[in-house]
Amino acid sequence: MSNQVEVYVRKKRQIVRQYVTPPVWDGIQHHACMSKQVTEYEDVLSSEDKKALETVDQLATQEILSFKVYNVASSTGKIRAALRGITKTPTVIVNGEKIENLTIELLRNKLHRQ
Question: Which of 7, 27, 81, 98 has the fewest CB atoms within 10 Å, i.e. is most exposed?
Answer without folding.
Answer: 27
